[in-house]
Design the sequence.
């Protein structure tokens, strides 16, 4: 059963340890605090409770347990998070994946990879082998990077997969085949050199195919699916991740060939952005392993602009981005193939430009042209204002000089830009909601209801003694939030918190865990323990009286009370007396 696996994994993993891989946590009292990985902030409002094994962010409201954290952070489905954490905890899952689809895809992709690699070696792969030879990739290199060949025929892969027991439906679902007009299906990739794309956990999630000749897009990727999203993956990341962590920096290139060449030349910390503009998800993958990234996009003007955008996205994710600039060779592949290529590349890396200087340099020409200068200046200041003061300060003198300003003028201009963006529109496309919001509890009553109710709910959730000594029914009546009330009723009916949690997981219901996590966060912040919980219950009681009892009292005074209301009143008086003074252990 998956639920037993969940329990086993939770008992072996510490949420603080898991989250520490992503966030720097500091212990204060019983709680750990750090800057939230889900929204942009400078002062920590993200709390992790080791005691209760939950996290909660006071800035953006995200919260939950170790599973919700990994799902959210790694963009995984529950099942994938389960597999990931099982591996980490050393737990062998007792159940095979229920939904089948991702596993099926993975089997189909694995079989397809074997087919493509065999085809590369077979007679029909001659054109591909010649192409690789022209690109100075040996057959041994090709095998090492699992470069394959998709033959030009319409159905050679589909037929191969069928022999391997993979149905046409699975092939279509896995993005390897397309349904034909007259039934049946045909291969998606034909006449292409194939590059497998692995996800972070080492599963093949798709392919990129480069056409050799004929019509069609130069590059074709597997279609987007639940398993494959090219905006969430980086080419060769799986091979590069250990090296990135140990070298303390990553190299980001644009193309498959650039990445392979860099690896072959000893830069095994290189990844490629799969032919899309870098996304914040991709940047966050890099951030998990390092805080420094060298951007080696092409040296043409499209590459220069793409590099600039990528660098701002990296910086927004907390990765210091440096632009590698070189002469000779339009991309890293060409450069590294030059006789003194490696030396040139090494020098280019050593003298890489930090983002502020690169941006100034890139706009240098435009800034001198009276027609283009206003737009260039605006673009530059918008960029600089989006960076932290610490990222700009070291280069302030140099930038001022280049712009013909005094350093204090530069600072004033950047400050003015920051102020002008009262609701700063970040340069990143996938900007976090209100990134500049200070970590205050949001006034989001719709979602968060009453904090008091959450705190009481979390206390009851985690403290068995309190649960058994408290008149839960009355407390439930005090609650105005229906979800909170439902949780308390469930606890009242004898459900163990663990059992409830499992039920939520099975139903993909995140709300309950979020309520508990938020309550835990609030309790930690307010320093409330079961021993001092009385004052919360008393508050609840007072609220209840204000809302329900006082209006009836008014009616009694006016003599306009109905019999039904009188009954209500007597009932209310009973509950409110019972918990008077917050005496929950009465
Ligand atoms: Zn947050």
Sequence:
């Amino acid at each position: 059963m998956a639920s037993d696996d969940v329990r086993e994994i939770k008992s072996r993993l510490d949420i603080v340890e898991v989250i520490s891989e992503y966030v720097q946590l500091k212990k204060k009292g019983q709680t750990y605090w750090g800057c939230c990985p889900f929204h942009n902030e400078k002062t920590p409002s993200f709390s992790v409770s080791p005691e209760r094994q939950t996290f909660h962010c006071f800035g953006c409201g995200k919260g939950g347990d170790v599973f919700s954290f990994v799902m959210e952070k790694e963009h995984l489905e529950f099942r994938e998070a389960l597999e990931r954490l099982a591996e980490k905890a050393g737990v062998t899952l007792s159940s095979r994946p229920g939904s089948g689809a991702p596993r099926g895809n993975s089997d189909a992709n694995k079989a397809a990879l074997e087919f493509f690699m065999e085809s590369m070696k077979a007679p029909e792969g001659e054109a591909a082998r010649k192409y690789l030879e022209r690109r100075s990739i040996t057959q041994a290199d090709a095998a090492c990077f699992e470069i394959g060949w998709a033959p030009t025929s319409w159905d050679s892969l589909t037929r191969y997969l069928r022999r391997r027991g993979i149905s046409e439906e699975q092939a279509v679902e896995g993005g390897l085949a397309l349904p034909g007009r007259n039934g049946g299906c045909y291969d998606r990739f034909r006449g292409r050199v194939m590059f497998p794309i692995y996800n972070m956990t080492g599963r093949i999630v798709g392919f990129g195919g480069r056409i050799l000749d004929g019509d069609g897009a130069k590059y074709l990727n597997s279609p987007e699916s639940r398993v494959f999203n090219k905006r969430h993956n980086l080419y060769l990341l799986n091979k590069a991740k250990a090296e990135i962590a140990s070298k303390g920096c990553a190299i980001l290139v644009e193309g498959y060939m650039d990445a392979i060449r860099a690896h072959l030349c000893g830069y095994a910390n290189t990844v490629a952005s799969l032919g899309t503009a870098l996304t914040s998800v991709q940047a966050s993958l890099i951030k998990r392993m390092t805080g420094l990234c060298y951007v080696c996009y092409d040296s043409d003007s499209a590459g220069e602009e793409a590099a600039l955008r990528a660098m701002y996205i990296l910086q927004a994710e907390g990765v210091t981005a440096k632009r590698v600039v070189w002469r000779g060779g339009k991309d890293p592949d060409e450069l590294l193939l030059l006789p003194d290529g490696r030396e040139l590349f090494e020098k280019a890396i050593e003298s890489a430009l930090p983002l502020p200087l690169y941006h100034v340099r890139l706009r240098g020409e435009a800034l001198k042209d009276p027609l283009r200068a206003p737009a260039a200046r605006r673009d530059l200041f918008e960029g600089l204002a989006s960076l932290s003061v610490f990222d700009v300060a070291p280069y302030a003198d140099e930038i001022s000089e280049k712009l013909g300003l005094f350093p204090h003028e530069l600072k004033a201009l950047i400050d003015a830009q920051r102020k002008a963006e009262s609701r700063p529109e970040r340069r990143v496309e996938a900007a976090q909601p209100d990134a500049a919001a200070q970590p205050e509890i949001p006034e989001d009553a719709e979602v968060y209801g009453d904090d008091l109710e959450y705190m009481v709910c979390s206390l009851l959730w985690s403290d068995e003694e309190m649960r058994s000594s408290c008149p839960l029914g009355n407390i439930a009546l005090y609650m105005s939030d229906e979800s909170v009330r439902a949780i308390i009723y469930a606890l009242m009916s004898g459900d163990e918190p663990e059992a409830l949690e499992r039920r939520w997981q099975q139903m993909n219901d995140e709300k309950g865990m979020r309520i508990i996590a938020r309550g835990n966060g609030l309790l930690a912040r307010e320093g409330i323990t079961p021993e001092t919980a009385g004052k919360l219950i008393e508050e609840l009681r007072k609220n209840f009286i204000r809302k329900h009892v006082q209006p009836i009292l008014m009616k009694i005074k006016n003599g306009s009370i109905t019999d039904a209301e009188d009954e209500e009143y007597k009932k209310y008086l009973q509950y409110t007396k019972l918990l008077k003074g917050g005496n929950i252990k009465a």
